[in-house]
Predict the structure.
Amino acid sequence: WLAKILDDMGNPQEAQTILIKATEISPRALGRQRELGAIAHRNQDLKTAVLSFKTAVKNGKNSAFKTPADYTTLAKVLVDVNSSEEGLSVLKNAQQEFPRDMGATVQLGLAENFIYQKLNKQEEARESINKVIRAAGKSSVKLPADVELELAKSLIQSGDSEKGKEIIRKLIKSNHENEELISDTKKMFEGLDMAQE
């Protein structure tokens, strides 16, 4: 909580220092490792981010608290340190951890699409987004808002902007009071040079 407050007050470096101390005290706490990885990534401390996310994946392997997000965030940070192939390998391992979970398949496919887009491998990117669309259609569980937003972004980037914008319309309509989601959506459009949209 101290780290969250420091971060909210605009002191992300101090928040990271607190989380480093917290993970030293309790290194197996998945939530702390995830938080440290996320704030280190925002602080551009990529070495700490990679180490924290790798620890979260390792500690979560035999835990009921493991999530596909542990793998996808690690894969994305590995892209930032120019280890895209290792990132793809992390995602392949994750597919074995969540073999029949369609929600996980969607999240992992989106991360795979992200990596292929970064590598400018358009055919593989298109294949991965098609896999995501099929899995999303089969999933009986409603996808979290952030995953739906990422799906919309991937569709727009891969040239299917109408499908992507339709997902966003429905998402905002269902979550019109969620200020954080609206802010994230605006940032996404700005990042795609579609601020007017």
